[in-house]
Amino acid sequence: xxxxxxxxxxxxxxxxxxxxxxxxxxxxxxxxxxxxxxxxxxxxxxxxxxxxxxxxxxxxxxxxxxxxxxxxxxxxxxxxxxxxxxxxxxxxxxxxxxxxxxxxxxxxxxxxxxxxxxxxxxxxxxxxxxxxxxxxxxxxxxxxxxxxxxxxxxxxxxxxxxxxxxxxxxxxxxxxxxxxxxxxxxxxxxxxxxxxxxxxxxxxxxxxxxxxxxxxxxxxxxxxxxxxxxxxxxxxxxxxxxxxxxxxxxxxxxxxxxxxxxxxxxxxxxxxxxxxxxxxxxxxxxxxxxxxxxxxxxxxxxxxxxxxxxxxxxxxxxxxxxxxxxxxxxxxxxxxxxxxxxxxxxxxxxxxxxxxxxxxxxxxxxxxxxxxxxxxxxxxxxxxxxxxxxxxxxxxxxxxxxxxxx
Length: 406
Prior knowledge:
Elements: H1 18-33, H2 39-46, H3 50-78, H4 80-99, H5 104-113, H6 119-131, H7 134-148, H8 150-166, H9 169-189, H10 200-212, H11 215-245, H12 250-257, H13 259-278, H14 280-303, H15 309-315, H16 317-337, H17 342-367, H18 375-400
Helix pairs in contact: 1-6, 1-7, 1-8, 1-9, 2-3, 3-4, 3-5, 3-6, 3-17, 4-5, 4-6, 4-9, 6-7, 6-17, 7-13, 7-16, 11-16, 11-17, 11-18, 13-14, 13-16, 14-16, 14-18, 16-17
């Protein structure tokens, strides 16, 4: 019987319940995008240009990457519970501070403090790996991400409704309430799952070269980064394609834009059900191949002149489907290379995905123009998914080598 089967909700002597793990990651996902519809209102409130207000989004992503790198070693040293509880407190205070900020600079400071909640992305995955072997961990991570995948689908819509009814501050009150709920839930439910090792921090540091020089670790990292990078490229380029190429109205574009989330939800469910049966390496490869198949078909349709929103956004479901299968398994693989450094591996892998994805999002914005159509974006996404396939094959080859030591 797995350790998670022994967990009891609101019993901190047992591992955290799966609902708690979903809440950990879900609040972090909500903080990424819930206030996006309020950016124009907030720019007017603080008396700054929209471009400067939008900087709070890119700066948040960059700081999130740094937080994930830093928090992993801390959770491997001091345990999952105290680190997660501490960051939930910081996030709640920062959310309230952002509401009452008298100017943009102070708002931005509190906004960046909110990135403490990125700890939830790291620790939810590391906690699963603390308790389960890699194939079962991939399955559990799949179910967790399936549960939290609803949040980014609903976040902007919720933020827009709250802004219209109560003003932009309402989204941050919701985040503060979510942070408080998370703190209470963690305090009563999150049992410690990490077993501290003898030798302290010095012993932990001695393990790092084995992690950072592992070809399997970097294979999983790169497969996840390239696969998620295709999605980030979509985020950077699809608004332009929808508005300029297909002349879609904002409401219509919003309806089509969420198509990858449908595939992601299905992919997470498939990962949760089949990772234990097929193994993480095969699932990583299957996820990558599905994205390549979808982008290849879209390229052929585009070259043949079938340029229609149904075609473009319909094939984007394959990006979500492939990522939903690949990412939970690649994450489980990263965490399994050196289980004693699961927190560090989760943080490093998460930072790598976000930073690489942000770069591809910027590239997507640069390569599109009034006369290009959607073709440059489609080619960019196909190339990144092909790179994910290459990384998946490399991991499988390394795992098949009899004398593989890492």
